[in-house]
Amino acid sequence: MSTPEHSPLGKTTVYADRYDPSLLFPIPRQAKRDEIGVSAPLPFHGEDIWNAYELSWLDTRGKPVVALAEFRVPATSPNIIESKSFKLYLNGFSQERVADRGNLIATLVRDLSAAAGAPVEVALTDAQAQGHAVTDLDGMLVDDLPVDIDDYGPPRADYLTADKAQPEVEQTLVSNLLRSNCPVTGQPDWGSVQIRYRGAPIDPAGLLRYLVSFRNHNEFHEQCVERIFVDVMARCRPQQLSVYARYTRRGGLDINPYRSTGTEHPGNPRGARQ
């Protein structure tokens, strides 16, 4: 069955060092989308951007090669790929001889697209610091607001308000205080989130309380971002909205979901904690 409880999460695992696409474990998105009232046509566009820092294989002479990988999974795909299974799959290339990067990319695209149920984009870059600058998400940081907080879950959408009596603004709000938990292992997932919108001014203190209320919430990264998008749209009614979360890595992978009313493709800015 393709439910989180049947995935490799939380289970003792033998790490294979040979290529095995059957290790990939897809989990349908729709069950969690049903919880927040999302169905086709989706109310957002977007993608899940994965960065892999532990990818290695052998060249035709048997010499190891390393690279960084970027994967873009469209939000329209019917499945997410469970992260531990993704890690196990990538580790399987460590003792495989690969003719060249083109062949490796073609294999990754084929296997990941099959698991996600939609075309996945793959890019490889050299493992040098040049070209991989660390940067902050742009926007107004709300974390230093002098607010009292004593609510850490479940998420409270009623904290979100916008002042409809005020003129429309274009604003970007950022917090580094996002934390949620793996729904299977309970391990914490730490992240930063950027909310860019055009509409009535959103109360930043209420937004901060709302984001902190995810602190004891059990949900995958992609599901948290979709919940945030849906809640902000429902409570604040912006004309335009994008939600971008940059999570810290686990097992050599970080996951960075992006959901937007627009069709733009986000950049991939590596944060200080990534």
UniProtKB/TrEMBL annotation:
<feature type="binding site">
    <location>
        <begin position="83"/>
        <end position="84"/>
    </location>
    <ligand>
        <name>NADPH</name>
    </ligand>
</feature>
<feature type="region of interest" description="Disordered">
    <location>
        <begin position="254"/>
        <end position="274"/>
    </location>
</feature>
<keyword id="KW-0671">Queuosine biosynthesis</keyword>
<comment type="function">
    <text>Catalyzes the NADPH-dependent reduction of 7-cyano-7-deazaguanine (preQ0) to 7-aminomethyl-7-deazaguanine (preQ1).</text>
</comment>
<dbReference type="InterPro" id="IPR043133">
    <property type="entry name" value="GTP-CH-I_C/QueF"/>
</dbReference>
<comment type="pathway">
    <text>tRNA modification; tRNA-queuosine biosynthesis.</text>
</comment>
<feature type="binding site">
    <location>
        <begin position="81"/>
        <end position="83"/>
    </location>
    <ligand>
        <name>substrate</name>
    </ligand>
</feature>
<feature type="domain" description="NADPH-dependent 7-cyano-7-deazaguanine reductase N-terminal">
    <location>
        <begin position="15"/>
        <end position="124"/>
    </location>
</feature>
<dbReference type="InterPro" id="IPR016428">
    <property type="entry name" value="QueF_type2"/>
</dbReference>
<keyword id="KW-0560">Oxidoreductase</keyword>
<dbReference type="GO" id="GO:0033739">
    <property type="term" value="F:preQ1 synthase activity"/>
</dbReference>
<feature type="binding site">
    <location>
        <begin position="221"/>
        <end position="222"/>
    </location>
    <ligand>
        <name>substrate</name>
    </ligand>
</feature>
<dbReference type="InterPro" id="IPR029500">
    <property type="entry name" value="QueF"/>
</dbReference>
<dbReference type="Pfam" id="PF14819">
    <property type="entry name" value="QueF_N"/>
</dbReference>
<dbReference type="InterPro" id="IPR029139">
    <property type="entry name" value="QueF_N"/>
</dbReference>
<keyword id="KW-0963">Cytoplasm</keyword>
<keyword id="KW-0521">NADP</keyword>
<feature type="active site" description="Proton donor">
    <location>
        <position position="189"/>
    </location>
</feature>
<comment type="subunit">
    <text>Homodimer.</text>
</comment>
<dbReference type="Pfam" id="PF14489">
    <property type="entry name" value="QueF"/>
</dbReference>
<feature type="binding site">
    <location>
        <begin position="250"/>
        <end position="251"/>
    </location>
    <ligand>
        <name>NADPH</name>
    </ligand>
</feature>
<protein>
    <recommendedName>
        <fullName>NADPH-dependent 7-cyano-7-deazaguanine reductase</fullName>
        <ecNumber>1.7.1.13</ecNumber>
    </recommendedName>
</protein>
<dbReference type="InterPro" id="IPR050084">
    <property type="entry name" value="NADPH_dep_7-cyano-7-deazaG_red"/>
</dbReference>
<dbReference type="GO" id="GO:0005737">
    <property type="term" value="C:cytoplasm"/>
</dbReference>
<dbReference type="GO" id="GO:0008616">
    <property type="term" value="P:tRNA queuosine(34) biosynthetic process"/>
</dbReference>
<feature type="active site" description="Thioimide intermediate">
    <location>
        <position position="182"/>
    </location>
</feature>
<comment type="similarity">
    <text>Belongs to the GTP cyclohydrolase I family. QueF type 2 subfamily.</text>
</comment>
